[in-house]
Design goal:
Radius of gyration: 18 Å
Order of helices and strands: EEEEEEEEEEEEEE
Number of strands: 14
Strand content: over 45%
Shape: elongated
Helix content: under 10%
């Protein structure tokens, strides 16, 4: 049960269900899912996306996204992310993010790839974090930023303030490494 109003063509198998192809939310979409009726203005909301998901304001995926998710304000994925999250303000993945996130604020429960933003946060990750403030509970790889912090770390931090909780030298200026 999906009622969608679009001013442009969009892939026919779109709704609160699965999207294989592309979903471009450009006008009002009113969706009726098993949960409640919801109205999204200039945004997309789906359970799973395989392909391209574009929302002028935002994109919300309840499940897994495989591909490219772009939005002006935010991308929110409550499942695994495989591909690229590109947003003007924030990216958030509650599951595993495999690929990359580009936004002012990036957050993932688990990240395998890289995050580029002003603030990058991850609970457990492998790869690169590039930003002003990089935070991780557990990180393996490189953190490049003004302030880098990780409790459990294996790799190199480059920045003005570098903190590795488990290291004998917990805080260091410019470069800190622990393997």
């Amino acid at each position: 049960n999906d009622r969608t109003l679009f001013l442009m063509a969009h892939y026919p198998d779109v709704g609160v269900g699965r999207v294989d192809g592309y979903d471009i939310g450009v006008v009002i979409r009113e969706m009726f899912s098993a949960r409640t009726g919801e109205t999204w203005l200039l945004a997309g909301h789906n359970r799973q996306v395989n392909g391209l998901d574009v929302g002028a304001l935002g994109s919300w995926v309840d499940g897994e996204i495989n591909g490219l998710s772009c939005s002006g304000i935010g991308n929110w994925c409550e499942g695994a992310t495989f591909g690229i999250h590109l947003s003007g303000l924030m990216n958030y993945a509650t599951g595993t993010m495999n690929g990359c996130q580009f936004a002012c604020v990036n957050s993932a429960c688990t990240a395998n790839g890289f995050q580029v933003g002003v603030v990058n946060c991850v609970s457990d990750g492998i790869g690169f974090q590039v930003g002003v403030w990089n935070l991780a509970e557990t990180w393996r790889g490189i953190q490049l930023g003004l302030v880098n912090a990780a409790m459990n770390y294996s790799g190199i931090q480059i920045g003005l303030g570098n903190i590795i909780g488990e290291s004998p030298l917990t805080a260091c200026v410019f470069v800190n490494a622990w393997f």
